[in-house]
Design brief:
The protein is α/β, with parallel strands linked by helices and 266 residues long. The protein has helices at residues 3-16, 90-93, 95-102, 154-167, 187-196, 206-214, 239-265, and strands spanning 24-28, 40-46, 64-70, 73-79, 107-116, 125-135, 171-179, 200-202, 218-228. The chain starts with a helix and ends with a helix.
Length: 266
């Protein structure tokens, strides 16, 4: 079955489960799934019940879609994503966002947990992604698809910063470097990324952003800096640290998305 047929298969299954065109879709990264609890009239659909939906085995990814409303806006939250480092192909990693876009969604907010490269940034900091550096060695785009030199939408990003200022939520802006993983970066690699202009680093998001943008959607990105990257503090890195930072930032992160949803969709 071709990649296009797999996308159609997934879109068809989503329709069967009552997922139609939503105003905005959120992809929630490691430890950030708590935002889905803010969704009103929510209905959860486990990935296992959705035909053609890739499912992650990484801790912190619940593996379900949550469909509902926030302030009258139709929203869909994807609690968990699959990663290239798990062995999934780039077409599988981007299948969900392409299928959701095929159903008519034209706004996406993609989120992730990331390591902080800027020394002055402490764990728990939120950062909108103004640009990324794709070091994953592959692109989800086909030859027939138009590429976008600026995939992150300035208008959506400005909405996030306006809401953050109104709610008293600290929100920075920076460049996200997407690496393949599964290992954390070495101190030498972090020094290289800093020289290249990266502010945070992780192992997801860039392929989905490109695919969503190529599908005709507007895209914003948010990183939660869960730890300082290798070589900055001298301490070892761990996924437990990522999860703990996600729990600590859950209220700020969820408040930001909850109060921004209507404006992002509009």
């Amino acid at each position: 079955m071709s990649a296009a047929q797999q996308i159609e298969r997934l879109a068809s299954s989503l329709r069967h489960h009552g997922v139609g065109a939503v105003d905005i879709a959120f992809v929630l990264g490691s430890g950030l799934g708590a935002f889905a609890e803010r969704i009103e009239r929510a209905r959860a659909i486990p990935y296992a019940e959705i035909d053609g939906m890739p499912t992650s085995a990484v801790k912190g990814h619940a593996g379900r879609l949550v469909l509902g409303e926030i302030g009258g806006v139709r929203v869909l939250a994807q609690q968990g994503r699959v990663h290239l480092y798990e062995g999934w192909s780039v077409s599988e990693v981007t299948r969900a966002v392409r299928a959701i876009a095929q159903l008519g969604c034209r706004r996406f907010v993609l989120t992730n947990a990331a390591g902080g490269i800027r020394r002055e940034w402490r764990p728990g900091l939120l950062m909108t992604i103004r640009d990324h550096i794709n070091l994953q060695g592959r692109s989800p785009l086909t030859r027939a698809e138009a590429g976008y030199a600026r995939p992150y939408d300035d208008g959506l990003t400005q909405v996030l910063h306006a809401v953050a200022q109104e709610r008293g939520i600290a929100l920075e802006s920076g460049v996200y470097a997407g690496l393949l993983g599964p290992n954390y970066e070495t101190p030498a690699e972090i020094r290289m990324l800093s020289t290249m202009g990266a502010d945070a680093v992780g192992m997801s998001t860039v392929a989905e952003v490109l695919a969503a943008r190529a599908s005709g959607a507007r895209v914003a990105g948010i990183s939660l800096v869960t730890n300082q990257a290798a070589g900055i503090t001298g301490e070892p890195l761990s996924h437990a640290e990522v999860m703990a930072a996600g729990q600590e930032a859950a209220d700020r992160f969820s408040n930001l998305l909850q109060h921004a949803a209507a404006r992002l969709a509009g």
